[in-house]
């Protein structure tokens, strides 16, 4: 009875493991590429200003969450607009409202100031990132940084 060479099992095991690693690596590439789709990218990947519509939609002393764009715009005083990432710095949830002059996160209760995005109540560890906002032709234009 003839035996296969001793290196055959090690070679085929090595080949199998290398093949599995290649498949996993390719799958990871596809998964990462899928994360960058325009449907899920939000404002953080925008290259230029994002038009959010009429500035009149943002109440004085309050704000509005633009969930699809992942941006929150506030108007602390008449004609003064501020824009921030709507992604909470605690667990990455999207803030859901501006109430009582605070940007509020529904997940764990973090609250942020409408004037500068500073944490007013945790567990968020850092302020919301600020964006550049302008009003052009009556519309809000926000440039994510």
Structure write-up:
With 145 residues, this protein is an alpha+beta fold. The protein has two helices and ten strands; from the N terminus they run H-H-E-E-E-E-E-E-E-E-E-E. The longest helix has 29 residues, at 7-35. The chain starts with 6 loop residues before the first helix and ends with a strand. Residues 4-11 and 13-44 have low confidence and may be disordered.
Tell me the structural class.
Answer: alpha+beta
Low-confidence stretches: 4-11, 13-44
In N-to-C order, the SSE pattern is HHEEEEEEEEEE
The outline comes out as globular
Helix content: 10-25%
Mean pLDDT, all residues:
78
Distance between the termini: 72 Å
Count every helix, treating DSSP H or I runs of 4 or more residues as helices. 2
Strand proportion, as a percent range, falls in 25-35%
Strand order of the largest sheet: 1-10-9-4-3-2
Kindly state the number of beta strands: 10
Layout: helices, strands, pairs:
Blueprint: H1 7-35, H2 38-41, E1 50-54, E2 62-66, E3 71-77, E4 80-85, E5 97-99, E6 102-104, E7 111-113, E8 119-121, E9 130-136, E10 139-143
Antiparallel strand pairs: 1-10, 2-3, 3-4, 4-9, 5-6, 6-7, 7-8, 9-10
What keyword list fits this structure?
single chain; 145 residues; alpha+beta; six-stranded antiparallel β-sheet; four-stranded antiparallel β-sheet; 2 helices; 10 strands; 32% strand
């Amino acid at each position: 009875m003839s035996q296969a060479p001793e290196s055959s099992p090690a070679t085929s095991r090595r080949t199998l493991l290398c093949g599995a690693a290649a498949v996993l690596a390719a799958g990871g590439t596809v998964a990462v590429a899928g994360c960058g789709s325009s449907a899920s990218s939000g404002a953080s990947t925008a290259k230029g200003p994002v038009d959010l519509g009429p500035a009149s939609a943002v109440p004085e002393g309050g704000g509005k969450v633009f969930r699809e764009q992942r941006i929150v715009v506030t108007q602390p005083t008449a004609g003064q607009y501020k824009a921030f990432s709507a992604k909470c710095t605690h667990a990455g949830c999207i803030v859901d409202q501006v109430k009582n002059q605070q940007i509020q996160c529904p997940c764990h209760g973090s609250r942020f100031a409408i004037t500068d995005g500073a944490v007013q109540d945790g567990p968020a560890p850092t302020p919301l990132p600020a964006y550049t906002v302008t009003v052009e032709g009556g519309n809000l234009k926000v440039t994510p940084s």
